[in-house]
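dumping this here so i dont lose it
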């Protein structure tokens, strides 16, 4: 039987339903009413057209009236607004806006897809302003774009820090407009938890977007050219964009007596039928059930609308596929970065009564040794009782949304945290690592549930009192920046410094990203510490972002022009010299600083280095390092998701060592692989910070200096032969101090180091030598152990106790490893 199906509204739901209806039934009469000109357009692309990212306006048009009519044989009527529904007689009163007349359109089945309208509230002076805009459709876009051009807009205020607000802020900034975002909330992007939202805010502030949070607009003056805020601030504004959210357009439904839900959207069943079975609704106008909590919610996003349009058409044609609820998976571009989320946030999960657990990890978006690796910060939220994954949030660059997509799929399949570890995901160096960030999140979660250690969070730090708070990073990292309450005990020397820890207090650990804190927690537990041991989720990297005030960053923001050098006091001497370029992408702290130090050491005073790093923390570290070393930071900027900086070497007459004698001496007594790694990480870090470093190798430590391919032509005594057998021949034969497993442990450690982009022991040794570090082999120990000079590597010195003591007396510290 031929049916008459009327669809009110186009775009995502209306156009999707119409096309699917025709594919399923060639006989039905399908009428699509759209009150505006365009029946199907990419409304999510509108901000990017305003910002000239999308160049061609026609690219926003998904389907035209003519195209829809010819391809699908659908009666498309634009400029036709449905203004009233008569449910009893089954007709819609339609206003023909082009001909300014009204008519009745009967239906057998009615589909409501009017979408949502920008949320508004009365503000004093708004009616007198001619520069206040909203953004919902193509005519809005045209007006904004024309106004910007005609009025040469320089300053803009965006009200609202949600998706549309931040996208508009970014795209106005692309046009060279100074933007201030105002929002009454305490954070941007409410679907994110506050520490993850801070990453988004920081990335935008670095691009000179200003934020006024916990603030509202109370008044417009001078026809909108002055914006008065609730904190008393007055902003100058050439244009104002209202982007405080959307409200479901339910006027038609309310007037028809259809049931409205708790969230002010039309209430529908699992087949998108309203309280009137002959009327369906979907998209931004309806209330949906959240997939996880099963509670009513409002999620105005494109994917649910398209999915619902298809399922409505299916149900009308006898295919009874239920809509199983919305997760709210979403992604936003933040200049060179990506922020994405799915499921419940931590705060939403707690409000729903779940036993909420969460964790943070920082992992490369692909293998660190492949060019342009960058870090993804990922937060996982799960239920501690059922172990079900509840949600996830991530911030990074390429591949960030991919990880959220995987977790969204896991949630839809009702996966528990252990399943994340078990997911077999694609791997090749340009795309991921052998253990994907999703896998790592699963491993960390299962470690927590297996009571390997406990977490604390960046929000907790301010309230920590009367605890043992230990930073287990290297001294060099600690000296660059740290949490004030912490003491520093490097994880690599933790076992030999247990006496420094107060057994009577709870222990709180932090490192750079969380890994070394976990290792430290295990060391302490295995050494009998019975008090509670906590590791900072996300480490110092996340904490520094959380507490950072970008307004206090005094970095010089450069461009790509030669004007960057105009602020330099050494510009004249540098102008005719070649600039050295260093790529430190993929390296984690203190890797970029070490690369910079190495480069500075190899150039003359007045020469410059351009360095690029993917570690966001380098943005701050480079300023700290330049201040400490006396070198000049010409500029530091974020570009293409990377930190780019130019540094000019200090004058010949200014040398750190001349200002303050900085020496570090280390005694290397052990031939354990992990202790040797610690030795050279500390030594290289000290070199990078401007210290002179000497390492005195004695007794078993001499093993590290032996050549692995040396064959002696000299006869040795029986005792010398015995020592030769006992001493490992070079670094590649050394074992772990713990978990040696007949040499397998060292191989596992090397594999792990490679995955985490940590240099090999051999590479660290060579870096140390190349950077001017001094290696001294103890001559007395060589005699005792029967080792000749020919057996040891090149580039080292030979001496005795006097040589070591002479260096040690000039050092600010001396380490025994």
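and the seq i came up w/
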């Amino acid at each position: 039987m031929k049916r008459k199906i009327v669809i009110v509204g186009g775009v995502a739901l209306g156009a999707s339903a119409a096309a699917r209806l025709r594919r399923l039934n060639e006989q039905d009469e399908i009428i699509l009413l759209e009150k505006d000109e365009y029946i199907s357009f990419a409304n999510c692309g509108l901000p990017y057209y305003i910002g000239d990212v999308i160049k061609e306006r026609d690219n926003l048009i998904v389907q035209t009236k003519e195209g829809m009519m010819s391809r699908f044989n659908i009666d498309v009527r634009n400029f036709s607004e449905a203004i009233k529904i008569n449910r009893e007689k089954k007709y819609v009163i339609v206003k023909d806006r082009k001909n300014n007349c009204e008519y009745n359109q009967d239906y057998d089945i009615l589909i409501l897809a009017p979408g949502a309208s920008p949320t508004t509230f009365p503000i004093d002076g708004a009616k007198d302003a001619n520069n206040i805009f909203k953004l919902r459709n193509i005519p809005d876009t045209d007006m904004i774009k024309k106004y910007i051009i005609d009025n040469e807009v320089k300053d803009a205020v965006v009200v609202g820090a949600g998706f549309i607000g931040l996208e508009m802020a970014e795209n106005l900034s692309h046009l060279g407009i100074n933007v201030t975002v105002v929002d009454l909330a305490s954070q941007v992007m409410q679907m994110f938890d506050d520490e993850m939202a801070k990453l988004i805010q920081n990335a935008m502030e670095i691009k000179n977007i200003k934020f006024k949070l916990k603030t509202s607009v109370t008044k417009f003056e001078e026809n909108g050219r002055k914006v008065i805020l609730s904190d008393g601030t007055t902003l100058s504004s050439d244009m104002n964009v209202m982007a405080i959210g959307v409200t479901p357009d339910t006027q038609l439904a309310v007037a028809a007596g259809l049931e409205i839900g708790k969230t002010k959207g039309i209430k529908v069943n699992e087949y998108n039928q309203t309280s009137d079975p002959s009327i369906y609704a979907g998209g931004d106008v309806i209330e949906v059930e959240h997939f996880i909590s099963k509670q009513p919610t409002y999620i105005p996003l494109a994917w649910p609308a398209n999915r619902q349009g298809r399922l409505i058409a299916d149900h009308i044609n006898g295919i009874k596929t239920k809509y199983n609820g919305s997760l709210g998976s979403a992604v936003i571009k933040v200049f060179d970065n990506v922020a994405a989320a799915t499921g419940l946030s931590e705060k939403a999960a707690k409000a729903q009564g779940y036993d909420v657990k969460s964790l943070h990890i920082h992992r490369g978006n692909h293998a660190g040794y492949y060019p342009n690796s960058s870090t993804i910060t990922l937060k996982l939220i799960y239920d501690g009782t059922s172990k079900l994954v509840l949600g996830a949030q991530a911030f990074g660059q390429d591949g960030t949304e991919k990880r959220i997509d995987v977790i969204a799929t896991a949630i839809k399949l009702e996966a528990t945290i252990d399943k994340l570890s078990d997911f077999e995901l694609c791997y090749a160096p340009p795309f991921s690592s052998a253990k994907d960030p999703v896998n790592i999140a699963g491993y960390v979660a299962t470690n927590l549930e297996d009571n390997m250690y406990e977490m604390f969070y960046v929000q907790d730090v301010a309230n920590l009192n009367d605890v043992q708070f230990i930073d287990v990073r290297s001294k060099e990292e600690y000296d660059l920046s740290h949490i004030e309450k912490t003491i520093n005990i490097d994880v690599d020397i933790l076992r030999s410094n247990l006496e420094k820890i107060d057994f009577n207090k709870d222990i709180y650990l932090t490192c750079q990203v969380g890994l070394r804190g976990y290792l430290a927690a295990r060391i302490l537990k295995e050494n009998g510490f019975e008090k509670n041991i906590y590791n900072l989720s996300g480490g110092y990297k996340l904490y520094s972002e959380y507490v950072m005030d970008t307004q206090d960053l005094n970095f010089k923001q450069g461009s790509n022009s030669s004007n960057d050098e105009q602020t330099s006091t050494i510009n004249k001497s540098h102008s005719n010299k070649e600039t050295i370029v260093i790529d430190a992408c993929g390296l984690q702290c203190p890797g970029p600083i070490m690369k910079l130090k190495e480069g500075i050491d190899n150039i003359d005073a007045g020469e410059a280095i351009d360095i690029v790093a993917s570690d966001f923390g380098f943005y701050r570290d480079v300023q700290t390092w330049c201040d400490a070393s006396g070198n000049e930071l010409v500029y530091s900027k974020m570009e293409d998701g990377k930190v780019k900086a130019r540094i000019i070497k200090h004058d010949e007459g200014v040398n750190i060592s001349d200002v303050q004698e900085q020496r570090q001496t280390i005694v290397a007594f052990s031939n354990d692989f992990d202790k040797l790694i610690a030795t050279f990480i500390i030594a290289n870090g000290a070199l990078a910070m401007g210290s002179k470093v000497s390492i005195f190798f004695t007794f078993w430590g001499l093993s590290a200096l032996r050549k692995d391919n040396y064959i002696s032509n000299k006869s040795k005594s029986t005792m010398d032969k015995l020592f030769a057998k006992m001493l490992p021949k070079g670094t590649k034969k050394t074992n772990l101090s713990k978990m040696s497993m007949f040499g397998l442990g060292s191989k596992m450690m090397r594999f792990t180091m490679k995955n985490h982009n940590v240099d090999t022991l051999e590479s660290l040794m060579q870096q140390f030598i190349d950077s001017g570090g001094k290696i001294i082999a103890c001559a007395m120990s060589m005699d005792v152990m029967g080792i000749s000079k020919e057996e040891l590597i090149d580039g080292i010195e030979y001496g005795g106790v006097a040589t070591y003591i002479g260096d040690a007396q000039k050092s600010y510290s001396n380490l025994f490893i």
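The CA atoms of residues 491 and 520 lie 6 Å apart.
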